[in-house]
């Protein structure tokens, strides 16, 4: 199949999904609802899950993904199989000149990721990775505030991503599975990559994989010469689901809830001078936050629409594979930091 620009409405852009577990089924759901594409098939080694998704989203099921690729000849594919399978499946898709979105992380290790990226360039296909939080309206609004200078120079950013152990986890630790979201987000928001990585964590419940971690990141100095630090707290031990970003600048402080898509801005009211203790308390009591308007959207839907747009109009994907490679590299460094200390 030759690469070509398409009018999806006139020609019918064909999409397929490989892996319809907890994440892949939502890719299938969204494709089935998008007027720009036709969901022509889903594939999964779990026949029950695959048949269920195919029935629910009115498409065809294939137990073998290669059969689906040959039979349906899709223009684009979402790959949501377990991480250890990303590399071989991605190469099979790319070598058929099919545009590809891989769920994060891009692959299991750096060498695999680099080969996938090189093959995508060789075959001139669009390759992107599912760092879906970039498409969260609260994140987009937060980045806009920062660019407008509402927070002033950023000095620190903290992300918390926690919850219980998901049943699907078999081949990745908490950093590679969910912490990598925030590793990518911090670079996306700060528009720079970390220069130092340090982490602390361990295995509280799981035997093979780290299930909690605190990751500390140091970023290059900004234009004002101030150091920027990042802190990511992630675990599978917290009984409630948490997805939050806290950003501190010299003029303000912002809190984003990525689950509810709420964003609150606090203006800094600090002054050096005070007359007495009551004046001191008054100057330092908590500021009243201002809720920033955010239009709620499903981040995955926005991400898939962006992917389709890049395929149709020949645009560069919103998340480049090189950025995904950097996120993977940082996640691996954080994991190594933990394991070196634990012996």
UniProtKB/TrEMBL annotation:
<feature type="domain" description="Gfo/Idh/MocA-like oxidoreductase N-terminal">
    <location>
        <begin position="14"/>
        <end position="131"/>
    </location>
</feature>
<feature type="domain" description="GFO/IDH/MocA-like oxidoreductase">
    <location>
        <begin position="141"/>
        <end position="254"/>
    </location>
</feature>
<dbReference type="GO" id="GO:0000166">
    <property type="term" value="F:nucleotide binding"/>
</dbReference>
<dbReference type="Pfam" id="PF22725">
    <property type="entry name" value="GFO_IDH_MocA_C3"/>
</dbReference>
<dbReference type="InterPro" id="IPR000683">
    <property type="entry name" value="Gfo/Idh/MocA-like_OxRdtase_N"/>
</dbReference>
<dbReference type="InterPro" id="IPR055170">
    <property type="entry name" value="GFO_IDH_MocA-like_dom"/>
</dbReference>
<protein>
    <recommendedName>
        <fullName>Oxidoreductase</fullName>
    </recommendedName>
</protein>
<dbReference type="Pfam" id="PF01408">
    <property type="entry name" value="GFO_IDH_MocA"/>
</dbReference>
<dbReference type="InterPro" id="IPR036291">
    <property type="entry name" value="NAD(P)-bd_dom_sf"/>
</dbReference>
<dbReference type="InterPro" id="IPR051450">
    <property type="entry name" value="Gfo/Idh/MocA_Oxidoreductases"/>
</dbReference>
